């Protein structure tokens, strides 16, 4: 009430000189002069990405360690408990993500204790990708000797293959949003001392993480050396869905053969040995019948 | 857009059907690589849908690069997936280029990229883990170094002998050359003539003996094959006698070494009488020695013979006179025997006196030497008698006898003197006895 009077008085006395007090609204102080600023502020981009990292039950030790490595690399993530395998797809996952107020999810699904599938999804209505993960090397490998600050913002490098096709572009955008640490995140650290490498080789996405170490003076960038920190993995995209953990299939990898199929084929190969032998024999017989031999001149030479 | 809308639907349906066919086909086909190319035509690829979604999720474009921090690196070469080394190298190259670009951009924005050395914060890997990494790296380094050293040692061992030989040759050569040069110089000086003096001429240079190429007698100390101390044991500390004694006792009483034969006799050791006393009578004197007993036994035999003879005679005749006569008879016989051969009369006398001696002596005691002489004579006499019993006609034997005679002539002079003395003694005693006997009677 007092303020209203003052405001009126102020307006009456000096309408132009004194800056107006910000109007108090339910949403907060609203200052007329600042309104355009706020509008521009709203245009100022703030990366509020949060990633939920979970895994399925009966996950292998190696894949669990990979998941934990991802948790340590991405400071803007939240780790959640194991998810029941039956209820992974569809609604439950979306609910879980929303519950934890995250905007994206990395879900590690382990099948048959052997195969690891990685779901990368933007929630609530973004696209989701299912990958098959190969060639996993965790950070605990003693051969990966590098080390970097926990929570420092990485530099993301992509090979130019990513711009060649639509699905690669989509994947690139998703990767940037999920793997890139938001600026001014609470847990982020100031300096840039590691770099992520995403490159497409043989229709697989290869991931590497290197530490940037400088031995010489800072100005001399030629003396930069890269030491691998880890982890390492290779992603084979299977399908891209329009919705989060489901929805219409936007992309299907034509060259993808599920590991189950591969194993089945191997077994069948071994199983069909006898049948193949029989076939080969019959083929040989047919061949011999169709091409009779010329009579041998020397066949009776050594006969007694 | 309409057309595009239809296509995905059709594709989906076709895709499902074809997938079923593929599954069955792929099972029957033998070649796995071929089947992959077939479904590639039927897979879903909704480009528009993808691009739509991309637009949905994309950040506003006015958001600066600083939020993205993404760099696109030009990948020039096609990398072979299976070649690990080149693949990794390609990744590293990509990372390097990306970081360089990014750092340039960051620098332009005046953002510090590198971490200052005093900035300590939590790292992605724990310190304990980094310790393990460090340990592993160090161990690898050590292994490599050790392997290198071992290889070098092996090679050097092979070469060492050759090198040694070469070095020796070189040294010898050098020595030779030096000597030659000095000799030459001296010759030259001699030829040119010098007025220095005689001193220089007598320079006995140590290498001019001509003995340079012989080995010196200096031996390396203590490298005998049985020496287990490696030649470094102290040899000169103890008393050498004591050492020798110790070694001897070790070899004799100690254990070890070659089996069995150490304490057995060999041909040399059986005849080794060094340990015995050397003829002295030591120890128990009551026990008579072997040599004395032998001599004494001979004497005793002779004396007993004579005793028995004389006892018989005395038993036969109580009179001393008779005994005297009997002795003379014996002497006479002996003389005759000796004279018939025309030998030394002295010899004949001598046995007589000897016989007399025996007669006297056996009663009074034995004179060892005299008995010895008697025996000697007796033997001579026997010799002589044997020679005479052979046919006297035989002149050859007589010749021999003459030879024997000649040898014994020198000895006989002494004997003569002795004999004469004993005769006198005996006569005196006989007289004494006769007097006594006469007195008694």
TrEMBL record, chain A:
Q: Where does the UniProt annotation locate this protein? A: Nucleus, Nucleolus
Record's protein name: Brix domain-containing protein
Concerning its family, UniProt says: Belongs to the BRX1 family.
Q: Which GO terms describe its molecular function?
A: rRNA binding
Q: Which residues form the Brix domain?
A: 49-246
Region (Disordered), start-end ranges = 276-304
The Gene Ontology CC terms held by the record are: nucleolus
Q: Which residues fall in a compositionally biased region of kind Acidic residues?
A: 294-304
On whether Translocase is a keyword of this UniProt record, the answer is no
TrEMBL record, chain B:
Taxonomic path: Eukaryota, Viridiplantae, Streptophyta, Embryophyta, Tracheophyta
Q: What is its main location?
A: nucleus
Q: Where does the record say this protein resides?
A: Nucleus, Nucleolus
As given in the record, the signal peptide range reads none
Q: Which InterPro entries match?
A: Ebp2
Q: Bias category Acidic residues: which stretches?
A: 10-33
Superkingdom to which the source organism belongs: Eukaryota
Q: Which family does it belong to?
A: Belongs to the EBP2 family.
Enumerate the Gene Ontology biological process terms: ribosomal large subunit biogenesis; rRNA processing
Assigned keywords, A-Z: Coiled coil, Membrane, Nucleus, Ribosome biogenesis, Transmembrane, Transmembrane helix
Biased composition (Basic and acidic residues) is annotated at 145-161, 167-183, 197-216, 394-406
Q: Please state what the protein is called.
A: rRNA processing protein EBP2
Q: Which GO terms describe its cellular component?
A: nuclear periphery; nucleolus; preribosome, large subunit precursor
Q: Which stretches of sequence are listed as region Disordered?
A: 1-43, 145-272, 394-414
Organism of this sequence:
Castanea mollissima (Chinese chestnut)
User: What are the TM regions of this chain, as residue ranges?
Assistant: 320-337
């Amino acid at each position: 009430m007092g303020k209203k009077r003052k405001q009126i008085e102020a307006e009456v006395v000096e309408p132009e000189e004194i800056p107006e007090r910000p109007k108090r609204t339910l949403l907060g102080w609203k200052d007329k002069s600042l309104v355009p600023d706020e509008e521009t502020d709203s245009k100022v981009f703030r990366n509020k990405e949060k990633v939920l990292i979970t895994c399925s039950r009966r996950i292998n030790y190696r894949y669990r360690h990979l998941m934990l490595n991802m948790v340590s690399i991405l400071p803007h993530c939240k780790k959640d408990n194991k998810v029941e395998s039956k209820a992974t797809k569809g609604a439950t996952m979306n609910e879980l993500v929303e519950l934890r107020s995250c905007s994206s999810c990395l879900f590690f699904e382990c099948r048959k204790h052997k195969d690891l599938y990685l779901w990368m999804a933007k929630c609530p209505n973004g696209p989701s990708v299912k990958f098959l993960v190969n060639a996993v090397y965790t950070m605990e490998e003693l051969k990966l000797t590098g080390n970097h600050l926990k929570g420092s913002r990485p530099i993301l490098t992509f090979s130019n293959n990513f711009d060649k096709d639509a699905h690669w572009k989509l994947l690139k955008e998703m990767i940037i949003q999920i793997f890139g640490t938001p600026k001014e995140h609470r847990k982020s650290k100031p300096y840039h001392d590691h770099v992520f490498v995403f490159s497409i080789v043989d229709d697989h996405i290869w991931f590497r993480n290197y530490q940037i170490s400088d031995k010489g003076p800072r100005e001399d960038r030629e003396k930069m050396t890269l030491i691998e920190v880890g982890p390492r993995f290779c992603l084979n995209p299977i399908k891209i869905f329009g919705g989060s953990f489901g929805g219409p299939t936007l992309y299907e990898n034509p060259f993808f053969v599920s590991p189950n199929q591969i194993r089945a084929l191997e077994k069948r190969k071994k199983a069909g040995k006898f049948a193949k032998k029989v076939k080969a024999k019959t083929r040989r017989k047919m061949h011999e019948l169709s091409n009779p031999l010329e009579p041998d001149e020397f066949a009776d030479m050594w006969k007694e | 857009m309409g057309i595009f809308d239809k296509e995905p639907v059709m594709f989906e349906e076709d895709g499902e059907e074809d997938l079923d066919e593929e599954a069955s086909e792929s099972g029957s086909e033998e070649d796995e690589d071929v089947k992959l190319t077939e479904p590639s035509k039927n897979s879903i690829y909704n480009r528009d849908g993808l691009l739509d979604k991309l637009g949905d999720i994309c950040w506003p474009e006015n958001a600066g690069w600083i939020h993205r921090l993404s760099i696109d690196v030009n990948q020039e070469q096609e990398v072979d997936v299976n070649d690990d080394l080149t693949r990794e190298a390609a990744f590293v190259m990509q990372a390097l280029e990306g970081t360089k670009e990014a750092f340039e951009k960051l620098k332009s924005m005046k953002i510090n990229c590198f971490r200052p050395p005093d900035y300590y914060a939590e790292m992605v890997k724990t310190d304990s883990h980094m310790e393990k990494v460090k340990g592993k790296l160090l161990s690898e380094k050590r292994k490599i170094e050790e392997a290198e050293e071992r290889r070098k040692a092996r090679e050097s061992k092979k070469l060492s002998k050759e090198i040694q030989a070469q070095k020796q040759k070189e040294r010898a050569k050098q020595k030779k050359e030096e000597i030659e040069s000095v000799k030459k110089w001296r010759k030259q000086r001699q030829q040119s003539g010098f007025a220095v003096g005689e001193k220089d001429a007598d320079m006995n240079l140590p290498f001019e003996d001509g003995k340079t190429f012989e080995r010196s007698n200096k031996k390396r100390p203590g490298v005998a094959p049985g020496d287990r101390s490696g030649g470094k044991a102290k040899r000169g500390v103890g008393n050498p006698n004591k050492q020798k004694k110790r070694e001897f006792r070790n070899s004799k009483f100690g254990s070890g070494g070659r089996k069995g034969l150490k304490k057995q006799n060999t041909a040399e050791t059986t005849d080794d009488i060094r340990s015995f006393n050397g003829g002295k009578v030591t120890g128990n004197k009551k026990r008579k020695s072997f040599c004395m007993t032998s001599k004494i036994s001979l004497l005793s035999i002779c004396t007993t013979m004579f005793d028995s003879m004389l006892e018989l005679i005395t038993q036969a005749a109580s009179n001393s006179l008779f005994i005297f006569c009997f002795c003379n008879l014996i002497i006479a016989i002996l003389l005759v025997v000796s004279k018939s051969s025309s030998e030394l009369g002295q010899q004949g006398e001598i046995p007589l006196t000897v016989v007399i001696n025996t007669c006297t002596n056996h009663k009074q005691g034995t004179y060892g030497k005299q008995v010895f002489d008697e025996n000697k004579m007796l033997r001579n006499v026997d010799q002589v008698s044997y020679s005479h019993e052979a046919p006297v006609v035989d002149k050859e034997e007589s010749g021999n006898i003459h030879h024997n005679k000649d040898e014994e002539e020198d000895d006989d002079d002494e004997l003569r003197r002795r004999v004469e003395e004993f005769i006198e003694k005996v006569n005196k005693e006989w007289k004494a006895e006769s007097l006594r006997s006469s007195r008694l009677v």
